[in-house]
């Protein structure tokens, strides 16, 4: 039934396009004097964060003319301000992975057609390499860790601007994938999707004005799972962390009374076994983790130290966490091993997601028996607009309106999903995605290599690491160090294999490498940890 008596005036009264930048408007209006950001020795209130972000928007409006603005910076006030100032300028934000090589960054800048690159002074050297590789370089703006440099001068000279979208489905940001089938894909986020995803994160993690959020999760990763906007929506405090050092993390937890943090399982391991680790008194620190299931030993240790761990699941294409392992009170009575097994599940759809489906090959839903395997499929408000400049890739990813994740899993009788395997060969190491095909392509460029297969193997520190199985050309020689050094010289160092094994590769009758046999060979009788 349609509403009767509508008019343009009433429509304007009852509808406002959703945008996550509105959360800063409210925080500045309602909690303007609260501390919004702590970055080293610098602090800003929400009123000041609002003013600085608007000045950033004013400066960028003159420089970018609506074209994308890229930012290469650690978790800092600069990157946080960019999550508001760049959209307010009318430009999409492209937050770049600070661990990438110059060639990878140059590709993303070119592909996104970025007009401006704001970069932290610690990345000045790689930016010079990027500029040398690009025929047309974006306008460069350097920032440092204090209150000086090009960035601060640009802000001080700018008049505030605050442009909001007329279409909530317009482009807010572009986040690049790890490039599983070649070059990285630019995943497009909308204002509406980010607004709702941030709201879901507030609800699921219990953020409030009294919360203090420590940035252990990279802010460039899926726009920090939308937490730049979520923490701001709650008018909580952002505590910036430029590098995850367990000693510094523990110091900041105690100094600022941190209540929330997110991160890969490796962050949990670092905290759990750091020399400074000591039990936190009072309310547990809430931790959201994804990338690998938390082990019973880590869960036990984190609980002893005063951390409450929640497991999440998502992809770049879903604004970060699309599923959450919602904890049920009746599970508290279970033994640790049983609780850990449940926490290893990916869980159920978050509060703004549509239903998560597990599809058989014929497109029907598998049985909810915890045994029948299918592909995880998603749709809803927190699924991407599509891939930038790649309509075919977008259509292939969602052939029937459901986004195919490439992850294989089961649905338990209680409705919770659990991953069993990956159809995409992505290695998740320390929370970072490594595309095996990308590493294979680089290794194949080595003059002594005949063929190669790269797989993920379990690692106690990183969750997973890359292992390369290499067959050499007849009469040629190479050492493991040669292969690793070759990879590090061509792509980001963290993507290099930690293990190199020489020998023939197992093949099918059609000549396809049988990676599952390599996994069995590498892992022996150890159970796979798939997440």
What can you tell me about this protein's structure?
33% of the residues lie in helices and 24% in strands. The chain has 531 residues and is an alpha/beta fold. It has 18 helices and 25 strands. The strands form six sheets. The protein has a nine-stranded mixed β-sheet with strand order 2-1-10-9-11-12-13-14-15, sandwiched between helices. A four-stranded parallel β-sheet has the order 4-3-5-6. The protein has a four-stranded antiparallel β-sheet with strand order 16-17-19-20, with no helix packed on it. It folds into three domains: 15-163, Rossmann fold, CATH 3.40.50.12780; 189-424, 3-Layer(aba) Sandwich (Rossmann fold), CATH 3.40.50; 426-523, ANL, C-terminal domain (GMP Synthetase, Chain A, domain 3, 2-Layer Sandwich).
What keyword list fits this structure?
33% helix; 3 domains; Rossmann fold; 531 residues; disordered C terminus; globular; alpha/beta; nine-stranded mixed beta sheet; GMP Synthetase, Chain A, domain 3; 25 strands
Short account of what is shown:
By secondary structure, the protein is of the alpha/beta class. The chain is built from 18 helices and 25 strands.
Number of strands: 25
- Low confidence ranges: 525-531
User: Could you report the average pLDDT, rounded to the nearest whole number?
Assistant: 91
The CATH topology of the largest domain corresponds to Rossmann fold
Task: Assign the CATH class of the largest domain.
Answer: Alpha Beta
Please tally the helical runs, counting DSSP H or I stretches of 4 or more residues: 18
